[in-house]
Design a protein that fits this description.
single chain; alpha+beta; globular; six-stranded mixed beta sheet
Length: 558
C-alpha cells in the first residue's frame, strides 16, 4: 500500500510539473499559479521519497536523513525552476523589453543587433498593397515603414530600440525575421556563409479597397468594423478607430538617433494619454455592451430548444414588470398593437418580448447557447482576442430581472466586434463558426510560397435547420422591420441593429450585424459595425454595414 502511494505521488508530481511547464503563462515564474504548482509538487515529492527508517537507527541519524531528503526535494524543484527559466521561457524572457525613468529601454542588446542585420519581411494585403516594409538606407541602416494609414496599425508598431512590437509585428516576429517558417538548412547556411539575412513576407486576407472603404465609412468616429468571408472566416476588412501611426514609433540606428528617440518618446506619451485608447485594437481587444444585436443569440437559443417558433405570438402591452423592475417598451411600431410573433419582435426589436423569451429559456439555456456562440471562450485568431462575457457575476442570471434584460442585450454583457461578426457568421454559414484568420500565406521575399492557410471550422453554434430559420428572421428584419435601410438592390440581406445604453450621460453605442449574398441560403459576407456613443444603430452603424457589404458584393462580380 505504501509503495502504491509513493508511485501515485511521484506520477502526480510529474503530471503537475509538466502542466506547469507547458500551460502556465510564459516568463511568469513568480505568479501564484506557478508557485502553487511548486508547493504542491514539494509536498507530493516528500510523500514519494520520505524514507521509512528502522527503529534501531539513532534519532540524530534519522533527523539527518530526513533533512537531506528535504534538501534533495528542494534541489529538484530548483532544477525544475532553472529548466523553466533557461529552456522553456528563454525565448520569451529574451524578447522582453522594459522602460526605466525617462523612457530608457531595458532590453537584450542582441535583439537590437539582430534587428539591424536582418532585412525584415514585408506585410502585404491580399491584392499586393504594402502594409509594412523594410528598406536599406544609403548609410546601410534599415528603416521599417508603413505607407498606408488605413492598414498600418494592423501591422502594429515595430520599435526594437524602444517599445518592442505589437499586433502582427509581434505575433509573426519569428517569421518576419526569418527565424521560423523557412528551410532550416538554408537558414543555417545563410548564417554560416554570412549572407544577408532576410525575413519572410506575410500576405493578409484583407482587401485593400474594402479596408479603405470601411475606414472612410467610419470616418473620424470611434468604433470598429469587421468584414468576414461567410464561408471561410477570412477577414476582408478590419478597422479600429482611433488608431496610431507606427512610423512615429520606429527608431532607426543612424546619425539622427537622439532626435528620433525623443520624437518617438513624445508620440508614445501622447498615445498613452489620448482618449479612445488608440493603441487598443477594438475589434479584438475592446469590450462593449451589444444591445439588441444580442437578440440574435437569444432567438437562436429559443428556436433550437423548441422554446419558440418564428410565428409564436407574444403580448407586448408597452411594459413588463419582472420582480421589482419595470421594463419599458419604446420600439413598438403601432401603440395599438399588442400581439407580435417572434419574427416580428426581432424585426421591431421589442425588448418586452425578448425579456419574456429569456425568462422562458432560463439561465442555463441562455448561458449554454451564449457559450456555443463563443461567449466566455478565447476565439482562435491571428491576434489575441479578449473573451466576450455573458455576465461578470456567475450568479447574475439567477435573478429573473437580470435574465430578462440580458436576453435583449443589456445587463452585464460585454462583447468584442469580432465576436458579434462570428454570431452573424454562424447564422449565415449553416450554424458553423469558422476560425477567423487575418494571414493568408507566408512567402520568401522573392515570392516563393512557404505556407498557405486553409479555412478550418471552429465550432458549431446551432444546427443547420435553426440557422436557416434564423436567416429568414434576419432577412425579414431587413425587408419589413427597422433594419429596412440595409436593403441592397439585387441581393438578399439579413441584419439586426442595436442601440446599447451605456449610461444616462452618454450617447448609446450604435451596432449593426448582418450578412448578404445573391442567395439567402448562401450568404457571401458578414459584417459587424460598432460606432461608440454613435446613437441609434439604424442611423449610425447600419449605413456603414450596408455600404461595405454592397462594395464587397460588387467587387466580387466579374
Amino acid at each position: 500500500m505504501r509503495l502504491y502511494l509513493r508511485a501515485v505521488a511521484l506520477l502526480s508530481t510529474l503530471l503537475i510539473i509538466g502542466y506547469g511547464l507547458v500551460a502556465t503563462p510564459r516568463f511568469s515564474s513568480a505568479t501564484m499559479e506557478w508557485l502553487a504548482i511548486l508547493g504542491i509538487s514539494f509536498v507530493l515529492l516528500l510523500v514519494a521519497l520520505w524514507p521509512r527508517l528502522p527503529n534501531w537507527m539513532p534519532r540524530t541519524q534519522r533527523s539527518l536523513v530526513r533533512t537531506m531528503i528535504v534538501f534533495f526535494v528542494t534541489f529538484i524543484l530548483i532544477t525544475v525552476q532553472l529548466v523553466r527559466v533557461q529552456v522553456v521561457d528563454s525565448a520569451a524572457i529574451g524578447a522582453r523589453t522594459g522602460r526605466h525613468a525617462g523612457e530608457v529601454t531595458v532590453q537584450d542588446p542582441r535583439l537590437r543587433s539582430a534587428a539591424s542585420e536582418v532585412l525584415r519581411g514585408a506585410i502585404l494585403t491580399s491584392d499586393g498593397k504594402v502594409v509594412a516594409r523594410t528598406t536599406q538606407l544609403p548609410d546601410g541602416s534599415l528603416l521599417r515603414s508603413y505607407p498606408d494609414p488605413t492598414t498600418a496599425y494592423l501591422a502594429g508598431y515595430y520599435s526594437p530600440r524602444l517599445y518592442g512590437s505589437n499586433n502582427l509585428e509581434a505575433a509573426y516576429d519569428d517569421v518576419l525575421m526569418g527565424r521560423k517558417g523557412g528551410n532550416p538548412v538554408t537558414q543555417w547556411l545563410d548564417g554560416l556563409l554570412h549572407r544577408t539575412k532576410k525575413g519572410y513576407n506575410l500576405t493578409l486576407t484583407v482587401d485593400d479597397d474594402l479596408q479603405k472603404k470601411a475606414d472612410a465609412l467610419l470616418g473620424d468616429r470611434q468604433g470598429a468594423v469587421v468584414l468576414l468571408d461567410a464561408k471561410t472566416g477570412a477577414v476582408r476588412a478590419f478597422v479600429s478607430k482611433p488608431n496610431f501611426d507606427p512610423n512615429k514609433l520606429y527608431v532607426n540606428e543612424g546619425p539622427e538617433l537622439d532626435q528620433q528617440v525623443n520624437a518617438a518618446t513624445a508620440y508614445w506619451q501622447q498615445l498613452n494619454g489620448a482618449t479612445g485608447s488608440p493603441l487598443l485594437l477594438k475589434p479584438t481587444q475592446g469590450l462593449f455592451i451589444p444591445g439588441s444585436i444580442f437578440k440574435t443569440v437569444t432567438a437562436s437559443a429559443a428556436l433550437e430548444t423548441g422554446t419558440a417558433k418564428p410565428d409564436t405570438v407574444y403580448r407586448d402591452e408597452g411594459q413588463l414588470a419582472v420582480e421589482s423592475r419595470v421594463i419599458p417598451e419604446e420600439n413598438r411600431p403601432d401603440p395599438n398593437r399588442i400581439d407580435y410573433s417572434l419574427s416580428d419582435a426581432y424585426a421591431y426589436s421589442l425588448n418586452v418580448v425578448f425579456a419574456q423569451v429569456g425568462l422562458q429559456l432560463g439561465p442555463e439555456n441562455l448561458a449554454e447557447y451564449a457559450h456555443r456562440f463563443g461567449f466566455g471562450q478565447t476565439i482562435p485568431f491571428t491576434l489575441p482576442v479578449v473573451p466576450s462575457q455573458l455576465a461578470s457575476d456567475p450568479n447574475f442570471l439567477s435573478s429573473p430581472a437580470a435574465l430578462a434584460v440580458t436576453a435583449f442585450g443589456q445587463g452585464q454583457l460585454q462583447v468584442t466586434p469580432l465576436q458579434m461578426a462570428l454570431v452573424a457568421e454562424a447564422v449565415a454559414n449553416n450554424g458553423e463558426m469558422m476560425t477567423p484568420y487575418l494571414v493568408e500565406k507566408t512567402s520568401t521575399q522573392d515570392g516563393k510560397t512557404l505556407d498557405e492557410r486553409d479555412p478550418t471550422a471552429w465550432q458549431r453554434a446551432i444546427t443547420a435547420e435553426t440557422a436557416a430559420t434564423m436567416r429568414q428572421i434576419m432577412v425579414h428584419s431587413v425587408q419589413s422591420g427597422y433594419a429596412s435601410p440595409a436593403q441592397i438592390p439585387g441581393y438578399v440581406v439579413g441584419g439586426k441593429t442595436g442601440t446599447a445604453e451605456v449610461g444616462s450621460d452618454q450617447q448609446p453605442h450604435a451596432w449593426f450585424i448582418g450578412f448578404a449574398g445573391k442567395d439567402q441560403n448562401n450568404p457571401q459576407y458578414v459584417v459587424a459595425v460598432l460606432v461608440q456613443n454613435g446613437g441609434e444603430g439604424v442611423q449610425a452603424a447600419l449605413p456603414i454595414g450596408r455600404d461595405l457589404l454592397q462594395a464587397a458584393l460588387q467587387r466580387q462580380q466579374p
